[in-house]
Amino acid sequence: MSRIFISHSNRDNARAVEMRAWLSTNGWDDVFLDIDATDGLAPGERWQNALKAAADQCEAVLFLISPNWLKSSWCLSEFLFAKQLGKRMFPILIDGASLATLPTEISSDHQAVDLIGDPLGWDRLKEGLRRAGLDANSFPFPKGRRPYPGFEPLTEEDAAIFFGREAQVLRGLDRLRLMRDAGAERMMVVLGASGAGKSSFMRAGFWPRLRRDDRNFLPLPTIRPERAVLSGKSGLFAALEKTLADQRLASRPELAAVPRSRAALGTLVQDGGLPDLLAAIRQAATQSFRGSTPPALVLLIDQGEELLNEEGRTESERFMEILGRALEQEKGLLVVVAIRSDAFPQFQAKPALAAIAREPFDLAPMPEGSLRLVIEGPARFASPPLKLEPALVDTLLADSTGQDALPLLAFTLDWLAREYGAEGSLKLADYVSAGGIRGVVTVAVEEALAEGRKRRSIPADPAALHGLLKQAFIPHLARVNDAGEFARRIAYADEIPPLARPLINLLVEARLLTRDRDSRGETIEVAHEALLREWPLLRGLLQADREFLISKRQIAEDLKSWEEAPADKKADALISGLRLTRAQHFLAERSAQDLTDRERAFIGESVRSAETARRRRNVLTAGAIVLLAAFSALGACLDSRCSNLVGSDSTLGDEQVFSALEHRSDAASAAECAGLRAERPCLAVYG
């Protein structure tokens, strides 16, 4: 539905059309007018029902207040209903209506714009709409939200403070329209390094603008694979459930026979029903959004590299199979995947998606001009608005270099805003005192640890604290990825040793870790992988345990292969050799929490299998030695007898001598036979 809704008396239709034209001329094309032949209400449809259905996107209502409007009780009820929905409201006086004649329900809370008596009325209306965030490029910003996200990515609610990549968003939308119209490529792959801002680009940049253009696109809630891309809290089944609960679609007859619960939707999708479900959603959206053709459904997948993790591999493989078939059968489906550049080759090699044409979209590092917008843009959305000292901005720009520039910049600004924002300004001196952009992480960590020591929830002894930190992070919150880099791992809270949980709570409060919940329980993860690289103490601990983390990953992969192997192939899937030696070492030396029960059982089974094979080899070796000794003894005996025959009995016949030697098979007897032939030519007849 449209962003601006025009409410008017049916006796003032001409004025409403004039307002619609003025809005369009001044850049507001996304306007709903009930009498519009194309986009207006269908015959018999009630304004109140239409506004209720548009609640998610109708951000403001313009009330054309005339004498006709004031006489209508229905018009006043429309006003009260919009107020109840919490919409921005703009009372506009036309055709002789005056401030004195306004009902108290309007005059007490709203400033009306007089388009007749005030020569600047139109200018005031334009400025009011812009200040309300209703220009073509703006979004509302919820009260109470942080203007700077820290290490966490921006979300769909943060579209108003998404700065610096506007050009890339528009370019991406243009490509998506071409994909929709041409039908060749069906998948856009957003590529970028860790820290490039892919998640914020997808959630705060791309998704809100797709949702606004609902006559052309219908984006499903963004999917993040985590450990369960199908059944997880942010998985496919949840995205479908939320889409069907959208009040713009919930009551559509095209979806009357569609199940609504996540479990039932999961069964439907697993049974091959996703293409038909998507087609029904598109048809319902066509009717609800009053489009001439069904909108393209857009499935956005954030953190696409998580599809390649060992944890959740079964659901990931199944998801890619389901997605591949859906793209083949439902031509109105488009997919946008954000994935780390180093993980793309492995993703590209997945057989289930091999037939899907892809459109790569490179998210390059931000230039300085864009970074300036990232710094300065959100400041005006703070409460109260923040003033940034120009010297601070220049220094931040100079310091924002390297792989983690963007997440470190966001974390630094968030920390400065929390520490000094109450003063209404952020200054260079405060930034310098914290150690600059790479020192702020350490300062934030030390503040959190100091608070823990004050509460006595963590030990004061540095060595004990380091041990606690190691228990918390290794191997639960960190891993080594395919590129050999340290990467975050999502852990369930009950995986983390109880003694380390107070430390986890402190780091969550400091916004260095994040806490969430899925169907299995509470989850913990680092807010951004930059933390693993930029916290010196943690980086050192990870580096010291690098070999273990690599082996841990290999053990998990081997365990999965063994569990999935058929019964007659199980023995072949066990580990052996150097891998088994390392695993045995870790089994003996690491603490109990470092390996799961399943991993320990798998290593134990591999050890038993290797021991059985060793004993079998020992038996075979011993048998071979006995046989070799027996043959050697027999050879020695024959050698002695032949020597006696040749040397001691001169009357022995040539035939008998040669026959005795010929029964021996060793090289010495062969040589003796050859010598005898030369010595006694008569023996040549036997050779």
Commentary on this structure:
With 687 residues, the protein is of the alpha/beta class. Among the domains are: 4-131, Rossmann fold (3-Layer(aba) Sandwich); 165-362, Rossmann fold, CATH 3.40.50; 545-630; 631-686, no CATH class. It contains 28 helices and 17 strands. The strands form five sheets. Strands 2-1-3-4-5 form a five-stranded parallel β-sheet, sandwiched between helices. α5 (104-107) links the parallel β4 and β5. α9 (236-245) packs across α10 (262-270), α18 (440-455) packs across α20 (501-509) and α23 (546-564) packs across α26 (597-648). The longest helix is centred in the C-terminal third of the chain and has 52 residues, at 597-648. The radius of gyration is 38 Å and the shape is elongated. The model is unreliable at 40-45 and 682-687 (pLDDT under 50).
Q: Gist?
A:
This protein has 687 residues and is α/β, with parallel strands linked by helices. Among the domains are: 4-131, Rossmann fold (3-Layer(aba) Sandwich); 165-362, Rossmann fold; 545-630; 631-686, no CATH class. The protein has 28 helices and 17 strands.
